[in-house]
Amino acid sequence: MLPNSRNELPRRTDRLPARARRRSWWSKGLLVLFTIPVAILKNSVRIVTISALGVYVNQAFLYGNLHRRGGLLFALLAVLMLVPALVVLQRAERHLGHREEG
């Protein structure tokens, strides 16, 4: 099902990492909680980057394509920040899973 509005897509993609190979409820919860500061940091980096480019390079950056369509570029930054958390949670699940089984 496709999102009906532009605002629905970010809400849906915020929940995707929790479904990415997470089995336990605590792992899903921690990953969702971790996405909040990552989203804040990503948006902060986006604002600072576009502002600095607008002030020091060219004011057109404040209204140009990077401002309007640069979300994907900065979303990749957020994904790169989430990968280490995914790896740590996956290892913790495996470690705790083996302890519970044995």
Q: Give the amount of beta strand, in percent.
A: under 5%
Helix coverage percent? over 70%
Q: Give the overall silhouette.
A: rod-shaped
Largest sheet: none
Give, in order, the helices and strands.
HHHH
Quaternary class: single chain
Question: Which helices and strands appear, and what pairs or packs with what?
Answer:
Layout: H1 8-19, H2 25-56, H3 65-69, H4 71-101
Helix pairs in contact: 1-2, 2-4
Features:
102 residues; mainly alpha; 78% helix
Q: What does it look like?
A:
By secondary structure, this protein is mostly helical. The chain has a domain at 35-101. Helix content is 78%, strand content 0%. The chain has four helices and no strands. Helix 2 (25-56) runs antiparallel to helix 4 (71-101). The mean pLDDT is 80.
Short description:
With 102 residues, the chain is mostly helical. It contains 4 helices and no strands. 5% of the residues are buried.
